[in-house]
Amino acid sequence: MAKKQTAGREQLGEFAAQFAALNDDVLFGEVWADEQALSAHDRSMITIAALIAMGSTEQLDAHLNIGKKNGITKDEIVAEITHLAFHGGWPKAWSAFNRAKQIWQNND
């Protein structure tokens, strides 16, 4: 079962209350929580791929950490980023590797 998400309310609650509620309650509370459709591991792989392909580096660190917690191994993240380098762009992959290396450097 997915952990209750509170980052939206914590970071944007006072500034953008509706967006924060949608983030925590709908995106994470309903979509991410539906593990019958896709596992948390698979959702993380998909999300990380989308963020890398879009060049959305601001969100990448958080989702790499979430992905590691959801069971993505070092070998899987290396394979994913390598694959994306050819479809999303070499510079984006290089940047993603620098972030992933920090997160997976101590263990799988």
TrEMBL record:
Name of the protein in question: 4-carboxymuconolactone decarboxylase
Domain of life: Bacteria
InterPro entries linked to this entry: 4CMD/NDH-1_regulator, AhpD-like, CMD-like
Organism expressing this protein natively: Bifidobacterium mellis
Molecular function, one GO term: peroxiredoxin activity
Any Pfam family hit: CMD
Domain Carboxymuconolactone decarboxylase-like: 18-101
